[in-house]
Amino acid sequence: MKENLNETRLEFGGVRLSPHFKLGEFLNLKKHPANFPTMQAVANMTYGCNQLLEPARQIVGPIIISSGFRCEAVNRQVGGVRNSQHLIGQAADIHPKDPAQFQVLVDFFRNWEYTDQLLTASNWLHISWSPFSPPRHFIRIGYYK
Hints:
Layout: H1 5-13, E1 16-18, E2 21-22, H2 23-27, H3 39-60, E3 63-67, H4 72-77, E4 91-96, H5 102-111, E5 117-120, E6 125-128, E7 138-140
Helix pairs in contact: 3-5
Protein backbone atom coordinates (compact mmCIF):
# COMPACT_ATOMS: atom_id res chain seq x y z
CA MET A 1 0.00 0.00 0.00
CA LYS A 2 1.23 3.49 -0.81
CA GLU A 3 2.48 5.71 1.99
CA ASN A 4 0.54 8.73 0.80
CA LEU A 5 -1.75 10.00 -1.92
CA ASN A 6 1.02 12.06 -3.56
CA GLU A 7 3.05 8.90 -4.19
CA THR A 8 0.02 7.27 -5.83
CA ARG A 9 -0.57 10.37 -7.99
CA LEU A 10 3.04 10.30 -9.20
CA GLU A 11 2.80 6.64 -10.22
CA PHE A 12 -0.60 7.14 -11.85
CA GLY A 13 0.71 10.10 -13.85
CA GLY A 14 3.64 8.00 -15.07
CA VAL A 15 1.40 5.52 -16.91
CA ARG A 16 2.49 5.45 -20.55
CA LEU A 17 -0.31 5.88 -23.10
CA SER A 18 1.99 5.65 -26.14
CA PRO A 19 5.73 5.71 -26.82
CA HIS A 20 6.07 9.47 -26.19
CA PHE A 21 3.05 10.44 -24.07
CA LYS A 22 2.21 9.75 -20.43
CA LEU A 23 -1.10 10.02 -18.62
CA GLY A 24 0.28 12.73 -16.35
CA GLU A 25 0.68 15.07 -19.33
CA PHE A 26 -3.12 14.98 -19.75
CA LEU A 27 -4.00 15.38 -16.06
CA ASN A 28 -1.89 18.24 -14.62
CA LEU A 29 -2.18 16.72 -11.14
CA LYS A 30 0.17 19.28 -9.57
CA LYS A 31 -2.31 22.05 -10.36
CA HIS A 32 -5.49 19.91 -10.16
CA PRO A 33 -4.83 17.07 -7.66
CA ALA A 34 -8.36 15.61 -7.92
CA ASN A 35 -8.36 15.43 -11.74
CA PHE A 36 -8.67 11.63 -12.07
CA PRO A 37 -10.15 10.05 -15.21
CA THR A 38 -12.33 6.98 -15.60
CA MET A 39 -10.84 3.91 -17.28
CA GLN A 40 -12.87 4.74 -20.40
CA ALA A 41 -11.32 8.23 -20.48
CA VAL A 42 -7.85 6.63 -20.19
CA ALA A 43 -8.71 4.36 -23.13
CA ASN A 44 -9.90 7.41 -25.10
CA MET A 45 -6.66 9.29 -24.36
CA THR A 46 -4.65 6.24 -25.41
CA TYR A 47 -6.51 6.25 -28.73
CA GLY A 48 -5.81 9.96 -29.20
CA CYS A 49 -2.12 9.51 -28.46
CA ASN A 50 -1.70 6.63 -30.88
CA GLN A 51 -3.95 7.86 -33.70
CA LEU A 52 -3.24 11.61 -33.61
CA LEU A 53 -0.42 12.75 -31.34
CA GLU A 54 2.20 10.13 -32.20
CA PRO A 55 1.81 10.56 -35.99
CA ALA A 56 1.96 14.36 -35.55
CA ARG A 57 5.06 14.05 -33.38
CA GLN A 58 6.81 12.17 -36.18
CA ILE A 59 6.33 15.28 -38.34
CA VAL A 60 6.91 18.20 -35.92
CA GLY A 61 8.91 16.71 -33.06
CA PRO A 62 7.90 16.98 -29.39
CA ILE A 63 4.39 18.19 -28.60
CA ILE A 64 3.38 19.87 -25.35
CA ILE A 65 -0.07 19.16 -23.88
CA SER A 66 -1.30 22.23 -22.00
CA SER A 67 -4.75 20.80 -21.21
CA GLY A 68 -5.95 17.25 -21.64
CA PHE A 69 -8.47 15.36 -19.53
CA ARG A 70 -10.64 17.49 -17.24
CA CYS A 71 -12.94 16.26 -14.50
CA GLU A 72 -16.14 18.32 -14.19
CA ALA A 73 -14.73 20.54 -11.43
CA VAL A 74 -11.59 21.39 -13.44
CA ASN A 75 -13.63 21.96 -16.59
CA ARG A 76 -15.82 24.48 -14.72
CA GLN A 77 -12.76 26.12 -13.18
CA VAL A 78 -11.11 26.71 -16.57
CA GLY A 79 -14.35 27.84 -18.25
CA GLY A 80 -14.79 24.76 -20.45
CA VAL A 81 -18.08 24.10 -22.20
CA ARG A 82 -20.52 21.65 -20.58
CA ASN A 83 -20.20 19.07 -23.36
CA SER A 84 -16.40 19.37 -23.71
CA GLN A 85 -14.65 16.32 -25.11
CA HIS A 86 -11.96 17.01 -22.49
CA LEU A 87 -14.42 15.52 -19.95
CA ILE A 88 -14.24 12.11 -21.60
CA GLY A 89 -10.57 12.08 -22.61
CA GLN A 90 -11.22 12.86 -26.26
CA ALA A 91 -9.51 16.27 -26.55
CA ALA A 92 -6.27 18.07 -25.86
CA ASP A 93 -4.96 21.61 -26.14
CA ILE A 94 -1.45 21.39 -27.53
CA HIS A 95 1.45 23.22 -29.14
CA PRO A 96 4.69 22.05 -30.70
CA LYS A 97 7.80 22.43 -28.55
CA ASP A 98 9.39 24.21 -31.51
CA PRO A 99 7.19 27.26 -32.26
CA ALA A 100 8.46 27.25 -35.86
CA GLN A 101 6.51 24.00 -36.36
CA PHE A 102 3.13 25.50 -35.40
CA GLN A 103 1.77 25.90 -38.94
CA VAL A 104 3.10 22.46 -39.90
CA LEU A 105 1.13 21.00 -36.97
CA VAL A 106 -2.02 22.89 -37.99
CA ASP A 107 -1.68 21.61 -41.57
CA PHE A 108 -1.11 18.06 -40.34
CA PHE A 109 -4.29 17.96 -38.25
CA ARG A 110 -6.29 19.79 -40.90
CA ASN A 111 -5.61 16.91 -43.28
CA TRP A 112 -5.35 13.97 -40.85
CA GLU A 113 -8.09 11.38 -41.25
CA TYR A 114 -8.60 10.89 -37.49
CA THR A 115 -9.06 14.59 -36.60
CA ASP A 116 -12.54 15.10 -35.20
CA GLN A 117 -12.10 18.78 -34.37
CA LEU A 118 -9.32 21.33 -34.86
CA LEU A 119 -9.61 24.82 -33.38
CA THR A 120 -6.62 27.15 -33.35
CA ALA A 121 -5.48 30.22 -31.49
CA SER A 122 -2.35 32.26 -32.03
CA ASN A 123 -0.05 29.75 -30.36
CA TRP A 124 -2.02 26.61 -29.49
CA LEU A 125 -4.42 24.11 -31.00
CA HIS A 126 -7.45 22.31 -29.62
CA ILE A 127 -7.75 18.87 -31.17
CA SER A 128 -10.29 16.17 -30.54
CA TRP A 129 -10.84 12.60 -31.62
CA SER A 130 -13.74 10.21 -31.59
CA PRO A 131 -12.87 6.53 -31.14
CA PHE A 132 -16.47 5.35 -31.58
CA SER A 133 -17.79 7.40 -34.50
CA PRO A 134 -16.51 8.82 -37.77
CA PRO A 135 -14.50 12.03 -37.32
CA ARG A 136 -16.44 15.21 -38.10
CA HIS A 137 -13.39 17.07 -39.48
CA PHE A 138 -14.70 20.28 -37.92
CA ILE A 139 -11.97 22.87 -38.58
CA ARG A 140 -11.80 26.49 -37.37
CA ILE A 141 -8.52 28.26 -37.91
CA GLY A 142 -7.99 31.36 -35.74
CA TYR A 143 -11.16 30.55 -33.78
CA TYR A 144 -9.88 31.24 -30.26
CA LYS A 145 -8.34 34.61 -29.45
